[in-house]
Amino acid sequence: ARNAKDCMVSYYHFQRMNQVLPDPGTWEEYFETFIDGKVGWGSWFDHVKGWWQKKDTHQVLFLFYEDIKKDPKHEIQKVAQFMGKSLDETVLDKIVQETSFEKMKENPMTNRSTVPKSILDQSISPFMRKGLWGLVTNAEPAW
Fold first, then answer.
1. 54, 42, 57, 50: which is closest to 7 by C-alpha?
2. Which letter does DSSP use for residue 127 in this model?
3. What is the dihedral of CA 37, 72, 70, 60, to 10 degrees?
């Protein structure tokens, strides 16, 4: 799960650059659309709440984006343990390195740079923008 405000900002910019989805309108219009759950992927609130409830009755590992950014090594270890695997330090360090936002932003397999502009117009907004969250950076929102 990720902070709702940060998801909303990411989704807004994604929808602006995605030529297949409807134009999100102004930030104010999109804010209302997102809060009402009237986006193509449904309500963020219902989605997160639904998985949160299932974590106690099903084999679901619930992670937070903010925790992954804060201590990726620890969170990757959680995933491995959840899957019944043990990773040695070398492998764990390599996973942390290869899954860093900076590394993934450079990788065409994850940054979507090979997707045609007619589908994802990254001149409007890059697919991978900042990889930050407002609560930690104290940055002013992009809108």
1. 42
2. S
3. 40
The confidence band for 125, taking pLDDT boundaries of 50, 70 and 90, is: confident
Instruction: For residue 122, tell me if it sits in a domain.
Output: yes
DSSP-derived letter for residue 95 is H
What's the predicted TM-score (pTM) here?
Answer: 0.72
**Would you say residue 142 lies in a domain?**
no
Neighbours of 9 (CB within 10 A): 21
Note whether 48 and 110 are within 8 A (CB): no
Residue 46 clears pLDDT 90, i.e. is over it:
yes
Across 4-123, the runs of DSSP E, i.e. the strands, are none
Q: Give yes or no for residue 137 having a pLDDT over 70.
A: no
Instruction: Give the whole-angstrom CA distance, residue 142 versus residue 135.
Output: 14
> What CATH number has the domain bearing residue 120?
3.40.50.300
Q: Which CA distances in Å does 18 have to 29, 52, 92, 108, 119?
A: 17, 29, 34, 17, 6
- Find the domain containing 62 and state its range: 4-137
Look at the chain and report how many structural domains it folds into.
Answer: 1
140 phi/psi in degrees, rounded to 5: -70, 140
